[in-house]
Amino acid sequence: MTLPLSRIIPGYNPRRYFDRRKHEELVASLRLRGMLQPILVRPNPGHDAADTYLIVAGGRRYRAALEAFGPEGEVPVIIRVMTDQEALEAAIDENDVRDDASETEQADAAVRVLAACQDDRAEAARRLGWSKAKFDRRLALANLSDTVKLALDERRIKVGHAELLAAVPADKQDKALETILGSGLDVSKTRDLLMRVTQDLASACFDKGECMTCPFNSAAQRALFETHIDDGHCTNAACFELKTQTAEMIRFEEQERADKAARVAASLAEDDPGDDADDDGQDDGADESMDDVTETPAAAVDAPQGGQAIASAQSVVPRKADSASKASGPTVTATSIAGRTAELREASWRTALARALAGNAAHAHSTILVAAMTGTLPQIKAETLKARAGLLVDPAFPGLDYGAKIAVIEALQEPHAATILSAIGAAYARDAANFEHVADLARAFDVDLRATWQVDRAFLERYTKDELSFIARECGLIAHMGEKAFAKRLGGKKTDLVTGMLGAIGFDWAGRLPSCMTLEGRYGPPPLQADASPTKIAA
Questions:
Q1: How many Cα atoms occupy the beta-carbon half-sphere of 345 within 13 Å?
Q2: How far is CA 192 from CA 160, 197, 198, 212, in A?
Q3: CA within 13 Å, CB half, 459
Q4: What is the pLDDT of residues 236-251, one digit of tens each?
Q5: 514 versus 216: which is more confidently predicted?
Q6: DSSP string covering 282-323
Q7: How far apart are CA 315 and CA 197, in angstroms?
Q8: Residue 417 near residue 378 (C-beta atoms within 8 A)
Q9: What pTM does this model have?
Q10: Which end of the chain is more exposed for a tag (fewer CB within 10 A), N or C?
């Protein structure tokens, strides 16, 4: 049948670019011979079926017919009842099989079908009749900015140019396109240009765990495109710089804490004359002191798999006799040591949580929502993020008025927005006033302090000999060295004791968390390796 053009409405059309010359040729052909091939339409689901119809296939003919005949002109149509999904797939298929379908039109179609398939890539590729490789390549091209897509549609750049630009953040693509077009760069020279402005991930000073799946890691592009930057290069300079500065800031804070701990330890050493009673270097009585150390069964030294058992909180001070025990001072327990370690413990857990949130946008998002809903989000220091807005968002961002800033934030690409969320979450971990909130977040996200902290000289030097004995026992060092050997070390200078504890042959401190550093106040043994038994770990 025929319908007036006024009753036909454009539907979904994968086409996004129409060549003006070909359009004019089609208009001339229609005026000369009329429309030879009917337009495929379906009843408009939003109106009476007899009123208007949506185009399924034939959008270019419709546009030309409007110019040739006007809105009251009649054209041949085929009316077919179809669901939205059937119409979408038919429109894509009708355009895809034609030789002049562009890559960007296919990219937009891939996005639409993927959404209709609830993000099931295999099903989307099947419905389109594409291989999985073709689907992934076209979907990657959907990350191109509209300006770059138009340049590719108009063939002002080649597909190789587009593949390279797809690995660059969208807000940087237009500038790169200007350089390519202005300098007439071919694909090879474009690749060389981008290589000079990317960052080699091998030189990064931050944890590159999340970089492995990041779309701005050039290694991820190798599997997609024939034209790509060398493996292991970051094409998102702003994100790379942010992570670098964050890592350097954390390292600086850790160094400050270590220096402070060393100063505190030196002060304690001056106030503890008994620790260096044997400064003459003689070990007289060292062997005898073996009998003075509290005996602890080996089973109580290290926790079994799971790390929840703790060495006994009984005193580990020498006990020659009841009267001597009373004269030796207060009993050393996990609680008493923790009280002297509170500042370091809190700072270390804040750093661990900040790093975890900086690498996980989903957890950072949850943190921000909880903080906002509990009224603690304002605890983030205003200057913490304000001073970094130029790096986090855009160099020009700090100088914009508020309305313009809203527009910039609205236009952020999802990966860029995720990076900013991660930075806000990390800032909250550092600035939250209540440490218990930090602890609860660390528990909820399974943050492991062992990834960012371990026993070192600065940590041990803050304690007295009695406290070092307690730490050595709960961490398994005394069981490893033997009571007599450790007692001999205990009889010497504290500095030598610390050196001996850290340098004990065959003993690895890595992964051992003294009870004073854990959130639960229980000793945490090293994580069990796949090929290790609990007995080996305890040793």
A1: 19
A2: 13, 9, 10, 23
A3: 22
A4: 666 776 677 666 666 6
A5: 514
A6: --TTTTGGGGGSPP--GGGTS--TTS------S--S--SSHH
A7: 61
A8: no
A9: 0.45
A10: N
